[in-house]
Amino acid sequence: MGRRLVPLTLDNLPDLPKRCRSCVFWELDPVSGEAAVKAGRSELEKESWISAVLLEWGSCGRVVYVDEVPVGYVLYAPPAYVPRSTAFRRVPWRRTPSS
Hints:
Layout: E1 3-7, H1 18-21, H2 30-39, H3 42-56, E2 61-66, E3 69-75
Antiparallel strand pairs: 1-2, 2-3
């Protein structure tokens, strides 16, 4: 069983499940995301987002293949590229002494 972990690119974007290729929840602000879904262009918006992040920041995901079949993926980017991340409360990391 051959396994590969490769960077996400526009070339292997079609390997993601269709539902995930068209989900723009994190990539767009709520108003733009809803407009993209209603207009039927969310998949194009996802592709544009990935392209922009690749150009401006670098690799923003990985795809896992087992025997050349895509079995999983992960997307990531700095908060500036993920508008919905601001909706979540952030707290500073603090180390606590172990008991």
